[in-house]
Design a protein that fits this description.
The protein is of the alpha/beta class. Helices cover about 20% and strands about 25% of the residues. It has helices at about 25-35, 145-160, and strands at about 5, 10-15, 20-25, 50, 55, 60, 65-70, 75, 80-85, 90, 105-110, 120. The strands form four sheets. The chain has a three-stranded mixed β-sheet, covered by helices on one side. It has a three-stranded parallel β-sheet with strand order 3-9-11. A three-stranded mixed β-sheet has the order 4-7-10, with helices on one face.
Length: about 160
Amino acid sequence: MSLVVFDGPNRLIVASSGTIVLDVRDDIYSPWKEWAASGDNLKFVPALRSTGGDPLPGGQALGAAYFLLNGWKIRPQEAHHTLSIVGNMYCEDGNSPFVPTLGAFNVSIVSQVSNLATQVFSSGSSTCELNVVSTSQAPQGSRGKDIQDIARAIRFLIANN
């Protein structure tokens, strides 16, 4: 059973009964693409767009973000609950991506967003070469010192992974 239902005429993505966690990519974006391509659903204005996922040097990828478009909104299930949204979900117009339930229910919405900068992909052994400013060139509190600290942490993680 799908965790959401798409209501094209009303531009709503409605959480199914019992839904308390929605992964933006897996439970909203991917099912919307399938829904849009089925039947005559392409007659409705697009609900979503995504950005990110582009490959970056060193086996990394740009984090993903999803945007609701054209007035589409998400409506939580009709029950008292906390709805957790996993992923970076925004409205293109800057407003909330959510509308209230039809009934008088108390719903809390918690967004679990990720860093949009990068995701690191790794399999097997990893090699990392870092060239950073030496201690004598990086005074305490400087960006060079911050870079050194990050480089040390990365070396530690790679050595102990």
